[in-house]
Amino acid sequence: LIMTDQQRGDCLGIDPCAPDVLQTPNLDWIARTGTHFRRGYAECPSCIPARRSLMTGTAPAANGMVGFQGAPWEPAHTLPGELSAAGYQTQLIGKLHLHPVRKRFGFDHMLLADATRGKENDYVDWLRFQHGRSEMHPGMIHGISSNGWVGRPHTLPEEQMHTFWCVDRAMEFIQKRDPSAPFFLKVSLIDPHPPLTPPQVYYDRYINRDLPEPVVGDWAPEFEGPERGLDPNASTMRLNKYDMQCARAAYYGMVNFIDDQIGRLYQFARGELSNALIIFTADHGEMLGDHNLFRKTWPYEASTRIPFVIRAPKSWGYPEETVCTSPVGLQDIMPTVLDAAGLDIPETCTGKSLLPVMRGETGKVRDVLHGEH
């Protein structure tokens, strides 16, 4: 299970709505050789509630989190917990963003990195050691807000960035895992969540390209023109053309960087991953200036629609190049994985197994998906 943070559903090159300039060849290949769920959604589009739905196979109202809160949580069943009880070796690498911090929620082991700053963070500890710095924010020395719209290249080399660190640790896990047990690995990336700071080469790839402008409905918040003096964390605004170009170039560059790193992981572990069920998704999207808005939580496609791709091993005989255009959600991932593993799906799950869609037996698991925030 590979999960990004704040990636729009149209930010896969294979998506019909994707910008022509966006390069995601590895994810496009996974989608084309599996099932691309083009109407995948975050039922509650912000970090913690979205991750609750994924971890427990439950709708927001069912798990009690219909907005952004950092409350302690004791779910009866979790995806890694069910798999661990069945004999799987379960590992988290990267962002979990649940409370209390360091609670494993069923994972046998975690390398936890919920952000590029702060304590209780294995990536930050590693980065501080690399640079000999003592402050808690060595990944934020560029000064760009972690919830803002400013785009620029990162100060770190790409091999020291969070995405690269996660993929390195995933490679090490696959190399050293218990060969006598099946495994469940969740690689959870912070990118392309702000700060919008890709490696220099990825920023350069997009900054001078003809990028699509934001879509702004005639019902959206109105502004007489571009504004100055904005809070770098503001979520309702109208940027000037160049500031928007910088934000979008940085965002697309981060998505491109993620794709290359997923390619690196697959090249390293082709044998293992060819025999694995691979799921790629995100916790929610990013408005990126659409309707004069940034960030998430909004009830619009840019905020709620997410990349949602599942590839089964070839040995299963599932059809390839399958496209599903009916709504699915993060609550469907746990039932799908447990079904694929031949395990019982807990009665607490409100999500549906997507294997019948992947096998071509049906085109949908529901007519309507309810979302709220």
What can you tell me about this protein's structure?
This protein has 373 residues and is α/β, with parallel strands linked by helices. The chain contains twelve helices and ten strands. The chain has helices at 25-32, 47-56, 60-63, 79-85, 122-131, 162-176, 200-207, 241-268, 270-274, 301-304, 333-340, 355-358; strands at residues 2-5, 35-37, 40-41, 89-94, 109-112, 183-192, 278-282, 308-311, 322-324, 328-329. The strands form two sheets. It has an eight-stranded mixed sheet, sandwiched between helices. The chain has a two-stranded parallel sheet with strand order 3-10. The radius of gyration is 20 Å and the shape is globular. The mean pLDDT is 95.
